[in-house]
Design a protein that fits this description.
3 helices, transport, NADH dehydrogenase [ubiquinone] 1 beta subcomplex subunit 3
Length: 99
C-alpha cells in the first residue's frame, strides 16, 4: 500500500548533487575563500548553491511569492463580501439605537 516498488514515478525528481556547484556564485566563492584564510573547509557549502539558482528567483521574489500569493483572491473575496453585504441590506446598525 505504501506505493514503493510498484513502477510508479515519484511526483518529483531529486536533482543530482553534481548539478549544484559554487563556481560562478560570488557569495559562496567569497565564503569559501574566507574559510580557506582561516584554514577551514566546508564540504557542505554546495548545499547552499540551489538558493542562487536562477530557477528559484531572488530572495525578494521568493518572499513576495510566499507573502502575497493569495492577495488577489483574498482582496477579491473581501470586495465581493462587502458588496454582497451592502446589496442585501446588511452591515447597518444591527438593531442598536444611536446615541
Amino acid at each position: 500500500m505504501g506505493g514503493h516498488g510498484h513502477g510508479h514515478e515519484p511526483p518529483y525528481k531529486v536533482p543530482s548533487y553534481k548539478e549544484f556547484t559554487i563556481k560562478g556564485i560570488p557569495q559562496l566563492e567569497e565564503l569559501e575563500k574566507e574559510l580557506q584564510k582561516k584554514g577551514l573547509r566546508d564540504p557542505w557549502i554546495r548545499n547552499e548553491a540551489w538558493r542562487y539558482h536562477p530557477g528559484f528567483g531572488t530572495k525578494w521574489a521568493r518572499a513576495r511569492a510566499v507573502f502575497f500569493r493569495g492577495l488577489p483572491l483574498g482582496l477579491g473575496l473581501a470586495v465581493l463580501t462587502v458588496a454582497a453585504t451592502k446589496a442585501l441590506g446588511g452591515g447597518g446598525d444591527h438593531g442598536h439605537a444611536h446615541h
